[in-house]
Amino acid sequence: MNFLSMIMADKPALIPISQEVRNVLEPVMLFLLVALSIAMTVAILKQSGDPQDLTAITGGNSDNYYGKSKGRSREAIFKKVTVGIAISIGVVAIAYFLFQL
Q1: What is the DSSP letter of 54?
Q2: Per-residue confidence at 53, pLDDT binned at 50, 70, 90?
């Protein structure tokens, strides 16, 4: 019995789900968390660091074609994918925690 179970022992379940469903959902959610974490790592590693991104630190100007078309580039797609995966990890982690209650 873990600490959270001891605290919640006398309280009704936050989400009333049968034990059979919990036994199925727990490994599925853990698998999703692992798969999303691996996907997040791959998405981050596929992004290339660009020295032009450092111009914001030095105050330089990056008004060139690359800077103007950044929203449609491969890097922009990877950035959107990374944000989507991060949000998915957060949602699955919160849902997993709620199912443990």
Answers
A1: G
A2: low
